[in-house]
Amino acid sequence: MKSFEQIAAELQGYDPQALSADAVNSFLAQMVEPVQRTEVLPLFEAFERVLATDVVSPVSVPPHDNSAMDGYVFDGAQLQPDQPLTLQPVGGTAFAGKAWQGEVGKGQCVKIMTGAIMPAGLNTVVPQELVQTTAGGTITIAPGLLALGDNRRFMGEDLMQGHPALRQGQRLTPAALGLVASLGLPTVTVYRRLRVAYFSTGDEILSLGDAPREGAVFDSNRYTVFGLLKRLGCEVLDLGVVGDDPAQLEATFRRAANEADAIITSGGVSVGEADHTKSMMKKLAGDDPASGGGVAFWRIAMRPGRPMAVGRIPKTGPTASLSEQVSYQNELKTAVLFGLPGNPVAVMVTFLAFVRPALQRMMGCNAPPPVLLKARSTQTLRKKPGRTEYQRGSVTTRPDGSLWVDVAGNQGSGVLRSMVEANGLIVLHHHQNSVAEGDEVDVMVFDGVV
């Protein structure tokens, strides 16, 4: 495990007081480690989990050459480019699920259903809607409609026996579950769920059910982060709201470090805020390279979400709050810390931009970077090079099929409503200048994430 100093030394131009968004992700990719423990689950329990091994196909899919259409199957070598072909159907029909028994000679064909095994010696299927039938029962295929081998699905065309169907690190999406089931496999080996502890900090934060008081606000961050973590497939340990009290902060941090793989906090990392949270992070992370601990406080060249803390807090063993001591089987020696800003939108943006990719790596997931959609801006967006900006936006499709994006509502970092109204984040990159109306911009879409 690399120390923070080693990681920083390998990043060109590393400056914790002016860190680019790309440098943040590069740092975090080296800071976190994936879990190792695995479990075998039935398919219905494995949805959205991450594969710990390749899924190797025990069969070929499809297992036989078969018809891709309802129609008539025949030897395609009889087709002539400039002449119609007339064929006489023989008795019976080839149905899916069993081989057709019989022989077909020259000038003959067999009626066949989709998925049925191709009879021996026959290689081409004409869809039934493309043939002309006569009173005598023959069918005629017009010239130029078909070529030899049309509408034939080959054995192993989808998957060949012994080849990987899914790779280690892939997430089990609905399509992936169906693929595994199509191979006749009732179980899969997956990584254990990542456990993430979360709490908000600050005397001004109210929990739901608390009486309102002057200068205080209800905590929304725990609920947005809870939803983001659940969407990611994490097990969430909610530790509530922790006031600016050193003893309470230390107890909560220690519990979080011992019971979880990662810790997310909001508030207490900005310049000028009460120093209790940052001091406790420093104290518990320590600076002993042998322990794997460490902490860094960053000012990121971005908007919103400039302040952020990251660290590794060494584990000291299970705490009494665990319901079953035997459940303490965490193979990681440290808990990864993500100290996020306090403003609600800044929390969500920093989570999407930095925390989510890092947690995916910890889950063992080989997730690619988020796909950025190209859309034209409906207005001028002012920006200077030197920082990455994330603006809430709403993408719509115009009648001509083009994609356009509007800025969604008030862009203040405390205005959560605009995150609800938006369907993506307009990403204005580090070196990018202002955007004119009609210019293309990148949009990180929310679907399935927020």
Descriptive keywords:
450 residues, alpha/beta, Molybdenum Cofactor Biosythetic Enzyme, Chain A, Molybdopterin biosynthesis moea protein, domain 2, Molybdopterin biosynthesis moeA protein, domain 3, six-stranded mixed β-sheet, 19% helix
Give a structural overview.
The structure is a single chain. The protein is an alpha/beta fold and 450 residues long. It folds into four domains: 4-37 and 195-362, 3-Layer(aba) Sandwich (Molybdenum Cofactor Biosythetic Enzyme, Chain A), CATH 3.40.980.10; 42-61 and 157-190, Molybdopterin biosynthesis moea protein, domain 2 (Alpha-Beta Complex), CATH 3.90.105.10; 66-153, Molybdopterin biosynthesis moeA protein, domain 3 (Beta Complex), CATH 2.170.190; 372-445, Beta-clip (Beta Barrel). Helices cover 19% and strands 28% of the residues. The protein contains eight helices and 26 strands. It has helices at 4-10, 21-31, 174-182, 221-232, 246-259, 276-285, 344-362, 417-421, and strands at residues 38-42, 55-56, 66-67, 71-74, 85-94, 108-112, 124-127, 131-133, 139-141, 152-153, 164-166, 187-191, 195-201, 205-206, 217-218, 235-242, 262-266, 294-299, 302-303, 307-314, 334-340, 372-377, 388-397, 403-407, 424-428, 440-445. It has a six-stranded mixed β-sheet, with no helix packed on it. It has a six-stranded mixed β-sheet with strand order 16-13-17-21-20-18, sandwiched between helices. A hairpin with a 5-residue loop joins β23 and β24 (403-407). α4 packs parallel to α7 (344-362) and α5 (246-259) packs across α6. Mean pLDDT is 91; it is low at 320-328.
